[in-house]
């Protein structure tokens, strides 16, 4: 058996939109997610890879514009390597699927849709067995059913599949969980040499076999993904599997957690923002808690406002944000209120101390008006 090297990628979800991106950032995000296909091509050439597999969810949904589809195909053509695309739960086969639309007449010759179980001959010594999704809700394990039909072969056999391994999600009672034990058995029996998985957006190698892998997405799709996008370079040589993780994405989702109760804390928060590179391609979700004086709260607002111009997006994770503004003596003397205004302020202060958000916001507004007048 001769050795084979290829790139394993998955979950491109091309055409994805995110509600926390402005139109400007969304346009760059969409473009980058296509452009990273070219980066995968460059990686493939530098690794001496013979082909690229994408293990499901190539497109975000069935109703993408023709532009989204043809631009993706154009980038795939430029890789000048065979690319095998698996339909997943976002882009299943079947009536009205994205694979049958008019835009697909532009599909380049180097791209093969894994539109049935296979085998697909990659070369005289390598074959792909595919587990495409035919519907968004198959109602059963979409992967391991195919194993029973496989006969031993002298070829190197790569299973390309999409779904959630049961060992990674033991509490989830989904009908579509994939039976990990069955896949491990197929690897141990020599029925398959490698399992290229998509669906979980993580770069993961099965600790028991080394041959069952998730590549992760090529570009981060959400805050649960803790790095820029990844792809795996895979070499199969006899029964030896070598996988190398490559960080190829440009976009990053990052959470900043910080307790802020003083100007010093706000300075630390500022350094959190400063430490992130490629800020124009970084999406920051903040989780801020604490009790702030009005002066500190105003400084925090100014800091956050300034970051929105630098980063692709900065937004609060509302559910976990808990900031209360309570005036301190310095705030009150700066405002120099008297009479009715001072009484209103005292009342608001009492409510804010009890955790009343509206009172907090009103105080902050009062402070801003007062401090700038
Ligand atoms: Mn999926």
Automatic annotation (TrEMBL):
Superkingdom, taxonomy of origin: Bacteria
Keyword Aminoacyl-tRNA synthetase in the entry? The reply is no
InterPro entries associated with the record: Calcineurin-like_PHP, DNA_Repair-Maintenance_Comp, Metallo-depent_PP-like, Mre11_N, UCP033093_metalloPase
Q: Where would I find the Calcineurin-like phosphoesterase domain in this sequence?
A: 5-201
Q: Which UniProt keywords apply?
A: Exonuclease, Hydrolase, Nuclease
Homology family: Belongs to the SbcD family.
Q: What is this protein called?
A: Nuclease SbcCD subunit D
What is the species listed in this Swiss-Prot or TrEMBL entry? Answer: Flaviflexus equikiangi
The top of its lineage is: Bacteria, Bacillati, Actinomycetota, Actinomycetes, Actinomycetales
